[in-house]
Every structure is written in C-alpha cells, then in structure tokens.
C-alpha cells in the first residue's frame, strides 16, 4: 500500500484543482487567496446549513438515511 499524503499536501492539491477549474471556466479570470478563503468559508457554511436541515427532515420523517429528496427539500 503506498504511503498516504500529508494533510498539507492534500490541501495544496485541492487549491491547485480549484485554480485549474476556474481557468477552465473563465480563462481570463483569477482569484486572490483571500477571496478564495472567503468563498471556501461561504461554501462550507451553506453545506453545513443544508446538511443540518436535511438531517432534521429525515428525523421528522423517522428515516435514518438522508436521501436526495431531503437534500432537495432542504
């Protein structure tokens, strides 16, 4: 089994992937590290809110699994 990359290496690779994706979608546009950090916080916050609401919906309906239906309803 190959050795696992360190957390720092994984984080750096994730940043590089986001930059490459941005260049594919908008080749003439860049993003500062501060703006990327703000966007990352925003996306994480929205994800947590949707996950929490989907969890509540599943609980209300006496389900133990969150499905796409709960995500879409949230």
Counted up, domains total 2
SSE order: HHH
Number of helices: 3
Spans of at least 5 consecutive residues whose pLDDT stays below 50 are none
What is the CATH superfamily of the largest domain? Histone, subunit A
Going by CATH, the architecture of the largest domain would be: Orthogonal Bundle
Q: How many angstroms separate the termini?
A: 40 Å
Count of distinct strands: 0
The biggest beta sheet reads:
none
**Helix vs. strand class:** mainly alpha
Rg: 17 Å
State the shape: extended
Question: What percentage of the residues does DSSP assign to strands (E)?
Answer: under 5%
Examine the coordinates and then state which fold CATH places here, giving the name of the CATH topology of the largest domain: Histone, subunit A
Mind telling me the CATH class of the largest domain?
Mainly Alpha
Fraction of residues in H or I helices: over 70%
On the 0-100 scale, what is the average pLDDT?
Answer: 83
Protein name: Histone H2B-like protein
InterPro entries: H2A/H2B/H3 (IPR007125), Histone-fold (IPR009072), Histone_H2B (IPR000558)
Domain Core Histone H2A/H2B/H3: 21-74
GO molecular function: DNA binding; protein heterodimerization activity; structural constituent of chromatin
